[in-house]
C-alpha cells in the first residue's frame, strides 16, 4: 500500500487528569475521506486539533506526507480547517472572505491570482452569484459553503472539518452532505470529517474511525463498521437503530454445538468462545424478519408495536423469553399489534459477542463460513 498521507503513531493527549486521546494509531491515505465518529467527549476534536497543530501531543508521532509535524506551527502544515462555528468575517463580502487566506502576509498573492482562485472554487460551491453579498445576507447553508470555500482556496494538502453541519437544519444538512461528498469527489483533497452523527459518517466516508473515551475502537470502511462491529459499543453506536442484542448461552447437545436463548436454538459449526460462556447474540433489524415462502421459523414472538419507516415497517417484538427485538419488514406486510409472529434470523447477519467484555467473537453458524 502507498505511504499514508497522514499518520498517527502512539499519539496521546492529556488535559490534567483527563486522558483525551489514548495511544492513537491511525493511517489516512492520500485523497481519502475519513470520518472520526464517536459520542461527545470521545476525542474527535482533540485528534483534529492535534493534526492541525492547534494543540501538541504528550507522546507519539504525527506525520503528514511522511514528515513528523509534532512541533510545526499550524501555518507550516498546509492544512485547512472548518470549525463547528464557521465564523465568517461579517464586514467582508463573500469574495473578500474567500480571498482572505490568500492575502495573509507570508503568501501574498496578486489580485489576478486571487481572482483565478476564486473562479476555481466558487462555481463548485454555487457561490458565483453571491460573491458581493455580506454574510448576514446569506442563509446558513450558503454561509457554510463560503466557510468551505475559504478552507479550500489555498489548495490545502489536508482538509479538516469539525462538525461543519451541526448548525444547520435537517434538510440543509442532507443537502450540504451531498455537496461535501461531490466536492470531495471533484477535488479529491484528503479530508477528515468529525461527526457524532453515524448516518453522516456512513454516507460520506471511505473509512470511519470510531472513538470512545479517547480510544479508537475500530477503523474501516462503512460496511465493515456496520456489518462487522468489533464490539457491542460500535454495534450499538452505528446504525440508525443500533443492533438488537439477545442474551444467549453456548452449549453442546446431542445434535452438536448450539447457541440457545428462550425459544431459540441455532446450530453452530464453530466459535472461538468457550463452550459454556455467556454470550450476546447481535442482529440488526434487517437480519431478523418473517419467513419467506416455505422457510422454517427460528423463533416466535408477539408484535408489541409497529412503526412505519419509509418503505419499511419496524416491528417491535417480544420473543418467547421476554427479550425485545426490532425487526425490519416490508410496509405492505399484513400484520397487526398483539399478533404472534414467526421470525427468521439470517445466519450471515448474526454476530456473537462476549457478554462480559463486549468483544466480538469469531463464529460460524451451520451452513456458513466463519466470520
Ligand atoms: N481545553 C481542554 N481542557 C480540558 N479538557 C479538555 C479540553 N479539550 C477537551 N478536553 C476533554 O478531552 C476529552 C475529549 O474532548 P474532545 O473535544 O476531543 O471530544 P469530542 O469527541 O470532540 O466531543 P464533542 O462531540 O462534544 O465535540 C473530553 O473529556 C474533554 O472534556
Ligand atoms: Mg468536538
Question: What does this molecule look like?
Answer:
This protein has helices at residues 44-52, 94-99, 111-121, 140-152, 170-187, 198-204, 222-227, 232-237; strands at residues 6-15, 18-28, 33-37, 59-64, 67-68, 79-82, 158-162, 190-195, 207-212, 215-220, 244-253, 256-261, 264-271, 278-283, 288-289, 299-309, 312-319, 324-330, 340-345, 350-354, 360-361, 363-365. The chain has 371 residues and is α+β, with helices and mostly antiparallel strands. The protein folds into two domains: 6-237, Rossmann fold, CATH 3.40.50.300; 244-365, OB fold (Dihydrolipoamide Acetyltransferase, E2P) (Beta Barrel), CATH 2.40.50. The model has no long low-confidence stretch (mean pLDDT 90). It binds adenosine-5'-triphosphate and magnesium ion. Adenosine-5'-triphosphate (ATP) binds next to β2 and α1.
Quick recap:
20% of the residues lie in helices and 36% in strands. It is of the alpha+beta class. The structure holds adenosine-5'-triphosphate and magnesium ion.
Q: Show unreliable segments.
A: none
Strand runs, count? 22
User: In CATH, what is the class of the largest domain?
Assistant: Alpha Beta
Number of discrete domains: 2
Hetero compounds = adenosine-5'-triphosphate, magnesium ion
CATH topology of the largest domain: Rossmann fold
Briefly note the structural class of the backbone: alpha+beta
Strand order of the largest sheet: 21-20-14-11-12-13-22
- Spell out the CATH superfamily of the largest domain: P-loop containing nucleotide triphosphate hydrolases
Rounded to the nearest angstrom, the distance between the terminal CA atoms is 24 Å
Mean pLDDT: 90
Question: Based on the structure given, which CATH architecture of the largest domain is correct?
Answer: 3-Layer(aba) Sandwich
Main β sheet profile: 7 strands, antiparallel
Which H/E pattern describes the elements? EEEHEEEHHHEHEHEEHHEEEEEEEEEEEE
The coarse silhouette is: elongated
Strand content: 35-45%
Binned, the helix content reads 10-25%
CA radius of gyration is 25 Å
